[in-house]
Each structure stands twice: as C-alpha cells, then as structure tokens.
Amino acid sequence: MKLRSLTAKVWLIFPIGLLLLTGYRFSQLEDTNQILPPPQPVKVQTEKITPELLTGWSFSEGTVQAYRKAFLDFEMPGKVVTIGELENGTQLREGARVFGPDKAIRRGQLLAQIDSRQNSASVKALEARLQAVRAQKQEAQARLQQAENDLALSQQNFARMEEVYERGVISLDEFERNKTALLNAHSAVTMNISALEAIDSDILSVSADINRETVSLEKTSLFAPFDGYIAAMNIREDNHYYPPAGITSNRDREASSAIVVVDDSLLEIQLELPVEDARQLKEGQTVYLASDNAILYRAEENQFQGNEVVTGTIWSVSPTINLQRRSQSVKVRVLNEDQKLIDGEFVRAWIASTVVEDAVSLPIYAISFRGGNAFAFVVNHDNHVEERQLSLGLQGLRRIEVLSGLKADDHVVTRGQHLLVNGSAVEVVGATR
C-alpha cells in the first residue's frame, strides 16, 4: 500500500517540473526579444601618418685594439741595469706616458738597458784588431811599392843586358841570371798584390764583426718607438732578462716581452656582420660605439648629441666570407684623442646601414598579426575603424616601414587595437602628430 502511494507521488512530480521548465523557457524568449542598448565605443589612441626619415641599423660587437702596438725585447740575455724615469724621477711603469722620436730627436725616450760591458769589450777588441790589420795593410802597400820598384829596375837591367848579350860582351850564364832576376821581380809584385788583397778581406771581415757587435750594443737599450703609454712592463732593475722563444700569439707576446708600448691615439675594432648587412656598408660610414646597448639606445633618442658615445668610421669591408662564422669582417678605426676607449675594451657597435627618406611607418606596437599577416586599424570620419592589410619593409629601432596599406594623413590606432574588429566604433582619447 505504501509503495503504491510513493509511486503516485513520483508521477505527480514529473508534470509539475515540466510545467515549471516550460514557463522558464518562455520567460527567456521574452528577454531575448527585448531591445539591447548599443555597445559603447572603444577608447583608443591614434597616430596620424606623416612620412619621415627611417633608419635601419646593423648591430655588432668587438674588441678595441691599438692600431700600433710595439713588443720590445732585447736581442740578448743580460742583467737589467737601468729602467727609464719619468719627469718626477720615478721609474717607468704600466700606464706611464712615453714619447717617441720626432724631427728634433732621432730616438724616443729611453725605456731600459741591460749590461753591455761584454759587448763593449768585444767592440774594443775588434777595433784594436782593425787598427792592427790596417797597419799591416800599410806595410803590405810599402812592400808592394818596393816590389814594383825592383821590377822596374830589373826590367831596365834586363833590357841593357839583353843588348850587351846580343853584341857578345857577356856570357849566356850572366844573361840568364838577369832574366831570372826579372822573373823574380814579377813574382814579388804578384805576391805582394795577393797579400794586400788578403789584408783588405781581413779589414772587411773585422769591420762586419764590429758592425754586428755595435748593433748588438745598440740593442742592449730599448727606446720608445712612438708616442703612447706602457701597457706592460715585464722586467725589473737588477734582474736578469732572457729573450722569449716560441711565442706565436699577441697575448703571449704581451706577457713575455720586456716592454709593450701602445699608441692609443688611433684604435681599430674588427666587427663580424651577416653578409646581408655587410653588403649595405661602405668605407667612411659612421659607426657609433659604447660599452652597452642601453647607452647607444639613449643616445639615438637624442640624435647622438651626448658625450657617452664614441664615433668611428668604417675603414674596410672584407670582400670575402668567413668560412667558419659565415660572416664578413668590417674594420672600424677611431681617432681616440679624448682617450674614451682603451686597448682591449669590449664595445657594442651600431651602424646606420640603410636610410629611407619620406618613409610611411608605424610604431612597432601598433601593428598586429594574424596568421603571419600584418594589419592595422584606420579610423574613418564617422569614428569607426577599418582593418587594413599591411606590407612591411625596413625595420628601425622603434618603427617599421609600411610599403602598402597606409597613406599619408591616415589616422591609425596605436593603443587599444586588441579590443577592435573591422567596423568597431571608437572614441579617440589620445592622438599624436
């Protein structure tokens, strides 16, 4: 009995629920038939298109190197007896400025000397030997002169004896003795000429030895080859010096050479750029250099008017491609009169590789993409937007060239475009240009 009563109640619930659901659906239909208020315009910022100059940049980095760097070494080992001095009497050291030769002085500033007493003694001994050989030459010349005189006398005697012999006055033996004396006189002259030539050869040999020892003596001193500063001082007074051997790289040479002098008035930086960028560069173009890209970015905003950036020029563009890096080498030279850069410093380089006059362009953030295609929204006269498909060209630091899709005086949405579709109503709350 109870089961029948429960079943009857369940059957009563279904119709009631169906009636309630039907009433709810009718109320929904009535709500949809109501007129909705128009959507509010989207607030946007716009920019008026004005053709202007647009610059495309090439970026690279490199290490500053002095155009002239001298690795100075003595040509022989020895004890360092002298280190050059500054004007205040202190010894030369790393960072000290030195002067090189000019029109008034034949040699630059004295930097260091090693003990040259052994070379001096060798030079003195050779000079004494040279004097002795020269004295021997004078004796040989005197003997040659005497031999030539004897030869002349023998020739006269033989001519007279030959005439007398033909008249039969003297015997054959006496005639032969005079003939032999003439031959001996000829031999004496020849022998003295050979001796004199041998002495001349000795003089040349001793002179060559003296010149060699004199050059070595000069190489016991190091002089500044040009104006600059000392980058490395690897010797000390009273210490022994030994010439380096087996050095191949500049780094090893700088660590082992006695003194390294750098001319920091002219610097060079070698840059590696992609082939596409390097092809657009030419000798003489300006290059902007700084230790950090942020410095260059700020300077570009001010048209590089500040003092934070160093300018250089392109000296050469390699016509070949580096097989390892697949890039081209570009050498930049900098007149470093203010000493803003130092040898070995790492710098960033910006080069204005491409410039387009009167370019139609947009800020990078104003361009949207869909499926890889660029587009932007243009505000028309009734404050509705039109979606324009864009063809892009040169990209600058902040703007991109628009080759097609926009024209001068168009008002393009730059902020708020993510809320728009083609035909959306907008309210311009900020406009530039």
UniProtKB/TrEMBL annotation:
The keyword Coiled coil applies. The keyword Transmembrane does not apply. Keywords: Coiled coil. SUPFAM superfamilies: HlyD-like secretion proteins (SSF111369). Belongs to the membrane fusion protein (MFP) (TC 8.A.1) family. Gene3D superfamilies: 2.40.30.170, 2.40.420.20, Helix hairpin bin (1.10.287.470). This is Efflux RND transporter periplasmic adaptor subunit. InterPro entries: MdtA-like_C, RND_pump_MFP. Residues 123-164 form a coiled coil. Residues 370-416 form the Multidrug resistance protein MdtA-like C-terminal permuted SH3 domain. Pfam families: RND-MFP_C. It comes from the Bacteria.
